[in-house]
């Protein structure tokens, strides 16, 4: 049996792709950013994409489904963003997710957000969000997880909210991390791309002469904020978090670690080439397959789509976990119904 899922704040569909790999059907997606529409539609042919703002979408026009998934905008909670949390318009979009959830009442939901929402300054807002999920009729389970613990070659901490409708009485447990020696490194996922990356034209314009789709990187200077930390991880390590900005992309692991010269100031070592990871390298680290093509007129839009996505392999782990709990619950219900029938007989 396949479960049908609706995706909100879908972006390029990293979360959707992970759920599809776990054998869920994504029957509906909503994404209001026009720079993403072509990428989503070209790579998710079977899913209807609603391009309206979620604010303008009546719940009656969202299909009935078994689950709702999504990553409401995270900039207002982010360390690198405004950090205004729920006071920011983008933070309030979390409640649009809850609105649809409350009115459609699917069996489960999954929502993802940045670790910054766990900061003490956001405690009252987070408590409010948890209460909203409960009032919507769901048993809530949430936890801070790192994608590197689940086979993703990247340090990427995210808060994951999982909920099951209260009448299902599901006692959910988050998936256990994999063994450390089974975790992927940068060498495992991007080493074969080492020789053929191409700089973007005029720093950010797409390069049409690529052997590998999207294997181009942004050029240009680095901000003082960027140079305040080492931005290089070696081949044998996990990547730093893939950010939603080309200017913040990590440096390729073929270069040596940056050299610290004073407090909050690093420099590149002389005699070595330092370049940003390409769009395709970032996509690989996030788990997108090479036949998943990103469409953009500015290379930074490619980095943004990828950095805002949920890592695909991590999404599949979460989807597999939810599926397992749904199957267990269905089995319990089946045994209960059988017991009732026997008593009635």
From TrEMBL:
Q: Which UniProt keywords apply?
A: Methyltransferase, Plasmid, Restriction system, S-adenosyl-L-methionine, Transferase
Return the SUPFAM superfamilies for the record: S-adenosyl-L-methionine-dependent methyltransferases (SSF53335)
Q: Which organism is it from?
A: Thiothrix lacustris
The molecule here is called Cytosine-specific methyltransferase
- Superkingdom in the source lineage: Bacteria
Q: Cross-referenced PROSITE patterns, in alphabetical order?
A: C5_MTASE_1 (PS00094), SAM_MT_C5 (PS51679)
Q: Name one GO biological process term.
A: methylation
Q: Which GO terms describe its molecular function?
A: methyltransferase activity
